[in-house]
Amino acid sequence: MDLSIIIVNWNSKDYLFKAIASVEADTKGIDFEMVVIDGGSFDGCAEMLRQVYPHIVFIQRDKNLGFAKANNEAFKVSRGRTLLFLNPDTEVEGHAVTTLYDQLNILPDVGMVGPKLLNSDRSLQQSCIRAFPTILNQVLESDLLRAMFPTSELWGMRPLLERDEKAKEVEAISGACLMIKKSVFEEVGMFSTDYFMYSEDIDLSLKVRRAGLKTYYVPTAVVVHHGGGSTAQGCANTFSSVMMLESRWRFFQKTRSVWYTRSYRLAMFITCVVRVGLVLFIWPIWRLRRKGSWGQAVLTKWMAKLRWTLGRESWVKDY
Question: How confident is the model at residue 290 (pLDDT cuts 50, 70, 90)?
């Protein structure tokens, strides 16, 4: 079989239905299968697949395994020579899957490819390519600085701004949609299970590079990534913010020195103190001019991050 498309579902049944429909509508000329694994959400996706897409391989697990473990588990039952890991909250446009497949087979020294990701409003999703994490780009990470200095090497997003449609080598691509040959995926040790969520894609990109292969961004393949289909639930904003810090911490533990890893936590502590102070200063002014709970939401997020730097968010160790 040419291709196995693997999707991890968690409370995303409606998105999942659209994702599958978009793949099956325009993916031609490739012998492919789809494997869906549900991580304990029991959101009705099993019944939907059984009724509408009975040919899809479905795996039900009793608990949320996290992105890496679930994808690795689904991979073990897949049959394709090539793998496409796809988020459930995506919609493939046109022949994007075929385009990625073709590029994966013709680009020089290629190990992995990723598409252009768009937000729901069709604006460009800047996180579809990125630089490998450093203390500096993590401390300075903000939409404002990205907008002011979009071509900075800190972000690794310069290829997004180039007008030509050629595939371009990049450091890392998003796990929302990435294609890799089965042989390469096995060679580099699959997704690292050191992470529950976030950083698995960056870790995989680094392992591909260390194997002497290249990661490419393919702008002619377009995928809409709605984002938040799984994480926009309950207290997910705080949860995801802390998990992002934890995942970067684990990434540095794996790839950098002890000194560098400790410096990251210290740098993030200082960053959080500054951000909390700014919110407390701006919030009263904001409330005088506008209504809404902006200040409360932002303060809650940055306070949770601050607690993480102090080791007060001990629940992350359970993931």
Answer: low
> Could you please report the per-residue DSSP string of the chain?
--EEEEEEESS-HHHHHHHHHHHHHH--S--EEEEEEEES--SSHHHHHHHH-TTSEEEEESS---HHHHHHHHHTT---SEEEEE-TTEEE-TTHHHHHHHHHTTSTTEEEEEEEEE-TTS-B-GGGEEPPP-HHHHHS--HHHHHHSTT-TTTT-HHHH--S---EEESEE-TTEEEEEHHHHHHTTSS-TT-SSSSHHHHHHHHHHHTT-EEEEEEEEEEEE---TTT-STTHHHHHHHHHHHHHHHHHHHHS-HHHHHHHHHHHHHHHHHHHHHHHHHHHHHHHH--SSHHHHHHHHHHHHHHHHTT--GGGGG-
Q: Is the pLDDT of residue 231 over 80?
A: no
Residue with token string 């869906």: 36
State yes or no: pLDDT of 112 exceeds 70: yes
pLDDT at residue 311, rounded to an integer: 95
With b for 16 or more beta-carbon neighbours within 10 A and e for fewer, the 102-141 pattern comes to bbbeeeeebbbbbbbbbeeeeeebbbbbbbebebebbebe
Mean pLDDT (the chain) is: 92
